[in-house]
Amino acid sequence: MDLKPIYQVLPLSLRNRIQSLPRTILSGLEEVRIRQERPLEVIAAGKTWFVSSNQQLKLDAKDSVLPTREECHKLLNLISNHSLYALEEELRLGYITVEGGHRIGLAGKVITEGGKVKHVRDITGFNIRIARQIKGAGTVILPSIIHQDEIKNLLIVSPPGCGKTTLLRDLVRIVSTGEGCRARKVGIVDERSEIAGCVLGVPQHDIGPRSDVLDACPKAEGMMMLIRSMSPEVLVVDEIGRKEDADAIHEAIYAGVHLFTTAHGSSIEEVRKRPILRELIEEGVFERIVLLSRKAGPGTIEAVYDGKCEPLRSKQCSN
Amino acid sequence: MLKLIGCILLLLASTGIGLVFAARLAARPKQIRRLIGALAILETEIGYGSRNLSSACQNIGDRKLEQISDLFRLMSLRLTTMDGAATYDCLQLAVQDWWPTTAMKTSEKEVFLQFCKTLGNSDRHNQLTHLALVKQNLQVEEQKAREEQMQYEKMARTLGVLAGALLIILLY
């Protein structure tokens, strides 16, 4: 795992602390949480640790490192390249994608204008989420999605942090490279810059040679734009659930485009309670629904359902 | 004979000093003009390109704007190599290093440093307002420098020769 882009945005003092963590922690690093004057926290392999001032990892927050105001300022300067004006959109959304597709969430005082979030000021909370591309994560469910060279419309359901986006990204890579299937043109509407993790329009993750990305584009509008402009065979969007999304999905699937998408939820029943998703499922828009959990680590495939919510197979791990 | 050579040297030297002063007076408004030009480029980099500060400065540094390019190259260097130190500290260091190499004086330096305080730390609209303001202020400085040039350039030149002559008369 290349953490260099992360080190680049950390001020020297914090960089040294993170770099001197044990290798086992660094290789499984998921999040680094930096809060002004509060304990430095790292999350690795699903466990939370506080970094103490003598570089020990502890479960309690006693005598742990407290990032100073100055360090937080430096961190923000490094993340923003001294240019807050270039991050207006990112500050409005509350996160910044850096090189390598990693994501830095920001918390602070929110400034609103006319009831809408304008930007975040006095930023004192940083959540550095390390993006991991797991190549091969999608191979196991591929046979249930592609049947006799025909792609099924897919919905991936899971609670946050269970590898939804990772699975989606790998499916994009597989379909666009043509690993074990015919290579297809893929159009990605990456509203939150998570799937491709674009920096300056260049995807930071491997999303295959035949993918086009509309970075930071609103989903509904983006789907229509892609259909018009890039003639994709497969449309990929993350986290649907709004009325406009449903309209755009209708447009897409009745235009002969296939769809890979995700939604938050911990069970199929839960998803069916959400009005827009219920409508889509009952209409039979999705031909496959994959449920993920963290039972055997992120990306555990709990079950695969068909369009009528009948399980195809269940309790199978991704590894 | 030796005395005569001495006199000539003295005269040449003082004339030279006078010319240097005159040249500085002439260079100052030109350099301020170029600085304003560079800021206009920065304005488009920020307003339209929405490029980050260090790469915007690097872009201006890569253009052939004589000494001004050096300033922006230095600014870009400081911004990227100072471990995230406050933006103003980085910029100030570059300005302090660079200013003595120019013919510009402290009044325009103050104007520029004041502007550096606002650079990078607000939204685009605000940045553009500050850019417009600093350009205006620099134009005032340029006007003053031009008046100073008109007033003193010729004088500096003649004064050099005359001062030399005076010294010769006194010492001879």
Key structural traits:
heterodimer; A: 319 residues; alpha/beta; Beta-Lactamase; Rossmann fold; 2 domains; seven-stranded antiparallel beta sheet; 29% helix; globular; disordered C terminus; B: 172 residues; mainly alpha; 84% helix
CATH class category name of the largest domain in chain A: Alpha Beta
Largest sheet of chain A: 8 strands, mixed
Task: Give the CA-CA distance, first to last residue of chain B.
Answer: 12 Å
Superfamily at the CATH H level of the largest domain in chain A? P-loop containing nucleotide triphosphate hydrolases
The major beta sheet of chain B can be summarized as:
none
Number of helices of chain A: 11
CATH topology of the largest domain in chain A: Rossmann fold
Stretches of chain B where pLDDT is under 50 for at least 5 consecutive residues are: none
Mean pLDDT of chain A: 87
Residue share in β-strands of chain B: under 5%
**Most extensive chain interface and residues per partner:** A-B, 17 and 23 residues
